[in-house]
Amino acid sequence: HDLFYGQARCFFCHQSGNDQGVGKFERYTNDFYFNIGVPRNHEIPNDPEPDLGLFATTSQNNHRGEHKVPTLRNVDKRPYPSFVKAYTHNGWFKSLEQIVHFYNTATVKATCSNEYITAEQAIAENCWPAPEVNENLAGFAVGNLRLSADDEEALVSYLKTLTDTTSVEPPSVYLPYTYDKSRLDHNDEESYEQEAPIYNYRESIRSRYMR
Predict the structure, then answer these.
(1) Is the dihedral of CA 113, 118, 123, 125 positive or negative?
(2) Segment 56-111, tens digit of pLDDT
(3) Are strands 67-68 and 110-111 parallel, antiparallel or unpaired?
(4) Digit-coded pLDDT (tens) for 4-28
(5) What does the record give under GO molecular function (predicted)?
(6) Which of 27, 43, 87, 159 could form a disulfide with 16 if both were Cys (CB 3.0 to 4.6 A apart)?
(7) What DSSP string runs through the chain?
C-alpha cells in the first residue's frame, strides 16, 4: 500500500479519489489517457500496425499512443489458477511481475536489438524493446522508479489483494423468440365474476395528485 501511494507512483493514474484506497467506491483509475511506452506485440494475429490509441479518434498528434488507464480491480482475477492473463492494451505482458518490472526499469535498460522478443525473453536479456509508439511518453510515472526486487514483489502482492473473493453470476441471455408455454394454458370461454368494482382512473389521479 505504501509503495502504491508512494515511491512506485501508481496512484498518479490508478486513483479515482483522494482516499488512498480506503473509499468504498475506489475504482483505481483516473480515466485519463497516457502512453506508457508498451512494446509492440508481434504475436497478435496478422501482426497489425502499431495501435495509435486515442489519436485514432481525435486525430490530435499529442494523443498518439495514448490509451485509457484501466481499473486495477480484479487485475489478477482469472477463471482458473493456470489461466494466463494478458496486460496492457496489446497484451504484450503476461504477468503482473513483468509489467511491474517494466514500470520500474523501462527507461534505464538497454533497447533490445530484437523487436520481436517477448516480455519473458526481454527480462532474461535485461533489455526492453522500443515503444510501440515512441511519442508522448508518460515519463513522470514510468521508467526509473528505483524499486528493489523486494519492492516489486511487495507491489505485486498488494495488487493481488484487489481481487474480489466472490463472483457475480451474469444474467441469462434474453431470447426474444422463446416463451413460457405454461402461460398459454387458459380457457377463453370461462367467465369471471368481478370481485370489486373498478373505479374511474381519472378519479384516482385526481384524488392522488390534485389536492
Answers:
(1) negative
(2) 999 999 999 999 999 999 999 999 999 999 999 999 999 999 999 999 999 999 99
(3) unpaired
(4) 999 999 999 999 877 677 777 889 9
(5) cytochrome-c peroxidase activity; electron transfer activity; heme binding
(6) 27
(7) -TTTTTTT-GGGTS-SSSSTT-STT--S----EEB--PBP-TTSTT-PPP--BTHHHH--GGGTTBEEPPP-TTTT--SSTTPPP-BSTT--B-SHHHHHHHHHHTTTSEEPS-TT--HHHHHHTTEEPPBSS-SSB-TTTSS-----HHHHHHHHHHHHTTS-SS-PPPPPPP-TT---GGGG---TT-----SSPPPPHHHHHHHHH--
- Tracing cell 402461460 back to the chain, one arrives at 183
- Domains recognised in the chain with CATH numbers: 1-177 (1.10.760.10)
pTM, entire model: 0.77
Structure confidence by residue, pLDDT tens digits, 63-76: 999 999 999 999 99
Q: Are 73 and 167 in contact (CB under 8 A)?
A: no
